[in-house]
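Hello,

Our lab assistant flagged a job as stuck in the queue for most of the afternoon. It eventually completed. Since we weren't sure the result was trustworthy after the delay, we are filing this so someone can double-check. Below is the sequence as submitted and the structure that was eventually returned. Let us know if re-running is recommended.
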Amino acid sequence: MNARTTRTLAAALSLTAALAISGCSGDDKPEMTVSGAFMPQPVNDKAAGGFLVIKNASGTADKLTGATSPLSDDLEIHETKDQKMQQVQSMDVPANGELKLERGGNHIMFMGLKSTPQVGDKVTVELRFEKAGSVKVELDVKDRTYSAQAPTSTTGHAH
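-- returned structure --
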């Protein structure tokens, strides 16, 4: 092999290694899936809670930063600490982990409903994530006493 061929081969190997390393960086966009999404039938049109499990199967952590819905112009992310709920700006969705929004704990709060959904209805919600973008899901409206058991898969892949 002459010197020119050796330099060309070394440059090609360096480029290949650089591309392989950049493809393995932690900057991959997380893909979120949602399961067990439901809303207990609201008592009135003042407020309602949304519950679901967000699963992040990627190696990149993300944050739930907001939600929108045709049902309400005012959705808040609430955490529950010491039996008190408070609005937060975001919630962590760990890499290769999940964020559970469940009764008695963290949840999405719908304020000032435009209508009162009935059992059997579906409520569309768009979840917003810092890195994954948005995910549309449908919450099944359940009886007020409904308690989620094993979550079942619903729509929900980041776009």
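-- support follow-up --
The delay was a queue issue, not a problem with the job. The result is valid. The helical segments are 3-23. The longest strand covers residues 47-56.
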